[in-house]
TrEMBL record:
Pfam families: ERCC3_RAD25_C, Helicase_C_3, ResIII. SMART domains: DEXDc, HELICc. InterPro entries: ATP-dep_DNA_Helicase (IPR050615), ERCC3_RAD25_C (IPR032438), Helicase/UvrB_N (IPR006935), Helicase_ATP-bd (IPR014001), Helicase_C-like (IPR001650), P-loop_NTPase (IPR027417), XPB/Ssl2_N (IPR032830). Keywords: ATP-binding, Helicase, Hydrolase, Isomerase, Nucleotide-binding. The keyword Hydrolase applies. This is DNA 3'-5' helicase. SUPFAM superfamilies: P-loop containing nucleoside triphosphate hydrolases. PROSITE patterns: HELICASE_ATP_BIND_1, HELICASE_CTER. Gene3D superfamilies: P-loop containing nucleotide triphosphate hydrolases. Belongs to the helicase family. RAD25/XPB subfamily. It catalyses: ATP + H2O = ADP + phosphate + H(+); Couples ATP hydrolysis with the unwinding of duplex DNA by translocating in the 3'-5' direction. Residues 405-551 form the Helicase C-terminal domain. GO terms for molecular function: 3'-5' DNA helicase activity; ATP binding; DNA binding; hydrolase activity.
Length: 552
């Protein structure tokens, strides 16, 4: 057995020795089907999960590929129980198939069919109390008819009991609409073309690409491939306008063909861009804008930042299974644990490009990450110690001692474009005043936000203090420094998104610097370890700095 960097254990955990010369190669292959759980300095712990295996299978990797990865890089023989478990778990995907019955000349037929060649599996699922009401007939011993409305719901329930169905029932073509890419002076990158081709073949699913790697262009290319009316769902109005600008620049679409459906404007056009907020808005207890989903015969629905999909949209998406669905994201991590719903209702992961691989190709900027540990003064330390548990994180995250450290870092990076990112509005107010820098929060009007972002892009302002509204879908390519002073507890997705603000290629050729300020020996430090897990999985290492050393 080779002296590899992995140790595979019988509890489905895999240990990775970070200092091993083959660690990065092994990490690259392992991350296809295993999730990073812990990432301290020397040994990283991955866990092989059912959903991870099924996502890998849907993306075209079979059990033999996964076991070959473990055998190739493992220091000791892979436990037989793990090998058997992986083969059997992967083998569950696709044992049940959802398909559509042929339509007869008289128009009959076309029902949704749940089929399996494994009689025992079919019997097991048909007896399940939550699945049985969704089945309304049995045309043959190897098949059941699914109630027409239940395509999404049955996929959710089947996943929960460990039998993920492969959905081959096809999609409505939607209303045809001509859309072409306008590749004048640019071309899709090879990984973007591959992602689009795999999605088009599968019909629905998720494309995972780093921030700054051109997910919007993947969406535009998918629209050009399908040539149909398209509904694009995004996180906020600023993101909606960025999508509009990019589509006008990169495709044959004209302003008259693109509509915005948000709190400010409600247009329905062949390509309509709507916000998640407007879709989930309620009036008198009812979703007020539900009609948007059926306003046109949409042939494609694009979910931007799909890891942020609000829970109510899952319920609405369950009724949209006949339409092609494309999810775009930098990470499938959800802090609410609903990755299974993304798999069932949007579709499985179709394409995933490791961040460091895209960086090595020169398509995103290199970045270095720092964790700066700040000592609390004696008074603040005592106040923290005496506080209730639910108050401690806020006290640590908003520690006044961080303000001076932010000033030092801004001075260190004079001449670069710097984002200061925080969670708490009072802290953002203090930072904005201390640095004499403009701020953007959820209370900032959309037009003012766009003016400030544009001023930052062109260099009229070099320091911008922002709240979590800048976590997502904001295009600031010349930002080369981010200083994170506080965040949403231990959110891995937020950490990835904030680093992502820096990864777009830069004309300045600056290497991006991502600083996280941590109050030493507090829950702030504990949450930081969890926040960093996803980026550690992508190959980013955090250098620990002492705040006192910055002044040296």
């Amino acid at each position: 057995m080779a002296d590899g960097p992995l140790i595979v254990q019988s509890d489905r955990t895999v240990l990775l020795e970070v200092a091993h010369p083959d660690a990065e190669s092994a990490r690259h292959e392992l991350a296809i089907f295993a999730e990073l759980e812990r990432a301290p300095e020397h040994i990283h712990t991955y866990r092989i999960t059912r959903l991870g295996l099924w996502n890998a299978r849907a993306a075209g990797h079979d059990a033999e590929d996964m076991l070959a990865t473990l055998d190739r890089w493992s220091r000791f023989p892979v436990p037989p129980s793990v090998s058997i478990d992986i083969a059997e778990t992967v083998g569950r995907y696709g044992r049940l198939v959802i398909e559509r019955a042929p339509v007869a000349e008289d128009g009959s037929g076309g029902e949704l069919i749940l089929r399996s060649t494994d009689a025992a599996v079919l019997a097991e699922v048909s007896k399940n109390k939550r699945i049985q009401p969704l089945l309304i007939g049995r045309p043959s011993p190897d098949a059941f008819v699914i109630d027409a409305w239940a395509r999404g719901h049955i996929k959710q329930e089947l996943l929960k009991i460990g039998w993920p169905a492969e959905d081959l029932a096809g999609y409505t073509p939607g209303t045809p609409h001509p859309i072409d890419l306008d590749e004048d002076g640019w071309n899709l990158r090879p990984y973007q073309r591959k992602a689009v081709d795999i999605f088009t073949e599968g019909g629905s699913g998720v494309v995972v690409l780093p921030c700054g790697a051109g997910k919007t262009l993947v969406g535009a290319a998918a629209m050009a491939d399908t040539k149909t009316t398209t509904l694009i769902l995004v996180t906020n109005t600023v993101s909606a306008r960025q999508w509009r600008d990019e589509l006008l620049k990169r495709t044959s679409l004209t302003p008259e063909e693109i509509g915005e459906y948000s709190g400010q404007t409600k247009e329905i056009k062949p390509v309509t861009i709507a916000t998640y907020q407007i879709l989930t808005a309620k009036r008198k207890g009812q979703y007020a804008h539900l009609a948007l989903l059926d306003a046109l015969d949409w042939g494609l629905i694009v979910y931007d930042e799909v890891h942020l999909l609000p829970a109510p949209v899952f319920k609405l998406t369950a009724d949209l299974q006949a339409r092609r669905r494309l999810g775009l994201t930098a990470t499938l991590v959800r802090e609410d644990g609903r990755e299974g719903d993304v798999f069932s209702l949007i579709g499985p992961k179709r394409f995933d490009a490791p961040w460091k691989e895209i960086e090595a190709q020169g398509f995103i900027s290199p970045a270095v990450c720092y964790e700066v540990r700040v000592d609390l003064p004696a008074y603040d330390r005592l106040e923290y110690a005496a506080a209730a548990d639910d108050e401690r994180y806020r006290l640590a995250a908003t520690a006044p001692a961080k303000i001076g450290v932010v000033k030092q870092l801004v001075e260190r990076h004079e001449g670069e474009r710097i984002l200061i990112i925080g969670q708490y509005l009072d802290q953002i107010d203090v930072l904005s005043e201390a640095l004499n820098a403009p701020k953007i929060t959820g209370q900032t009007p959309v037009d003012e936000r766009e003016e400030l972002y544009q001023a930052f892009r062109v260099g009229e302002i070099s320091v911008l203090v922002v709240s979590k509204v800048a976590n997502f879908s904001i295009d600031l390519p010349e930002a080369s420094v981010a200083i994170q002073v506080s965040g949403s507890f231990g959110s891995r997705q937020e950490e990835a998104q904030r680093l992502g603000r820096l990864l777009r290629p830069k004309q300045s050729n600056h290497t991006a610097s991502f600083y996280t300020l941590i109050a030493r020996d507090t829950v702030d430090q504990d949450f930081a370890q969890n926040r960093q897990r996803f980026l550690a999985e992508q190959g980013y290492a955090y250098t620990i700095l002492d705040a006192h050393s910055l002044a040296a």
